[in-house]
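Sharing in case it's useful to others searching the archive later.

Someone asked me privately for the predicted structure of SPFH domain-containing protein, so I'm posting the question and my answer publicly. Question first, with the sequence:
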Amino acid sequence: MVALILLALLLIFVVVVLAKTVRIVPQAQAAIVERFGKYKASLPAGLNVLVPFIDRVRYMIDLREQVVSFPPQPVITEDNLVVSIDTVIYFQVTNPVAATYEIANYIQAVEQLTMTTLRNIVGGMDLEETLTSRDAINSRLRGVLDEATGKWGIRVNRVELKGIDPPPSIKDSMEKQMRADRDKRAAILTAEGQRQSAILTAEGAKQSAILNAEGDRESQILRAQADREAAILRAQGEGQAIQTVFQAIHDGQPDQSLLAYQYLQMMPKIAEGDANKVWIVPSEIGKALEGLGSTMTNLQGIPKDATPRVRVDMGETNPAVAQESDASRAGAHAAVEEALAAARVAEVKAPPAPGSADAAPPAAPPQPGAEPPA
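And my answer, the predicted structure tokens:
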């Protein structure tokens, strides 16, 4: 029985010795070993063997980068405004021995050092500069912290300001100022837009007026040119028509019978007017016709044996059409002769009025082929 107890005690002693001798250090950590209260060594990650009951692990230091967020701290700016600033520190232990023996609590030391340095930096800035100079504050704060914590075996990698909160009254004033500034910029932009719109509208009206004036000018020029060309064409047409009629008259060789026939055809048209209530046919119509024919025959405009100086191109002449024209001309001449003979007979049969100048004996009818009296 005593042997079993001794064996159990021996087994327990062996376990305790092994526990004191063998130490396993996790990755990214360092163990600080002391011997009789004095620093002995730093154990790396992995399996390590110690002298039991003599060496012991005093601290386990985390070598990874750590993030510490500090609560908001009141800071007074240059213009005597209190703002609350909370910061975030990214640091890493580079020397476990210095972090263990050079300072008692390096996290608290970093926090206090951050607050004091931040008050010094922000105290030289006004509120507006503080709100707009985050990068400058971060750079200056990191430089001071990195220099101060180097002897503690700590390296400050990054410093960030999470928030800068001015007092509520200052926030309200800033919001009013921001609204006023935005309203001002909106009014300026609106005025500039209206000005640009007015300028563009005026330029458009100017261009429109110029184009309308140019269009009216071109239109008037084109109308004037069209009127001139139309007048020229009408004058040329009238001239060609006159030449054509003049040539036709001379080519037809009009005589007294044709002119008398034309006179007889015009007499009903003369009597067609509404104002011609009474129209008396003279008894000497035959003589009048003869005198008119002789007079028209001897006009300068229609000479007996004359041809036009300027010939008008009448186109190709069809022989059949020419024969028909000669036949129609002969028929018209015969009709005129018959009308003249009828007029002379009517004149002979009509008794003259007593005491008038027309009581003279009628003239003998002219012989065929004789020249009518002038």
